[in-house]
Amino acid sequence: MLDSILEGVIAFMLIAGGAFAFIGSLGLTHLKDFYMRLHGPSKTTTLGVGCTLLGSSLYFSLQGGPVVQELLITVFAFITAPVSAHMLAKSALHHKLKPDPRTRGNPIELESEKPKHAVEEAPQGNSPLP
Amino acid sequence: MIDTALWISLALFSAAISLNFYRVVIGPSLPDRILAVDTMYMNSIALIVIFGIWVNGKNYFEAALLIAMLGFISTIAICKYLLRGDIIE
User: Fold this and answer.
1) Considering CB atoms only, which of B23, B49, B65 is closest to A56?
2) Residue, of A81 and A116, whose pLDDT is higher
3) Which CATH number applies to A2-99?
């Protein structure tokens, strides 16, 4: 009885992981610009791999003692996915990739024409300040 | 029940890897391709874990752990190269 319930939980975990990963990759393929595309995989793929590894851990726990090595990969994925997404966003801003024209707001890294550390010239002419 | 779930999950992850490969091929810029490869290795980890459940072997998780660590390091290295023009300064 308990085994069949656990099998159902494992099957649900596997299918949920596959569905999450597929939706994330669909977002990676179909969204318009890079800043939108970054959202899909960086959130859903972590969850999909986490669900699959949790299902695998439960499955191998059925055949003996508890198995926790798989959770190591889950923890590693949950730690590293935001870091790599942050680095990818920084490199995209550095390369000044064009956002979709309907995007609201413009970050200062994208609108500045001059390089970031250019020396500002003093304003010429009469200034309003005394 | 687990057999059917394994088949469905294998099909979904294979479709996900195919979509990632499509993005690697058509990706207009370099960060797009890096993001696609990053997603691809995460999906391949899950594929290896599902294969381990299928053949009922416990040793496949070590390969998955190796892929996770090397993929993260390589993503960070390529991003560092794009940002600074050099990996180790």
Assistant:
1) B49
2) A81
3) 1.10.287
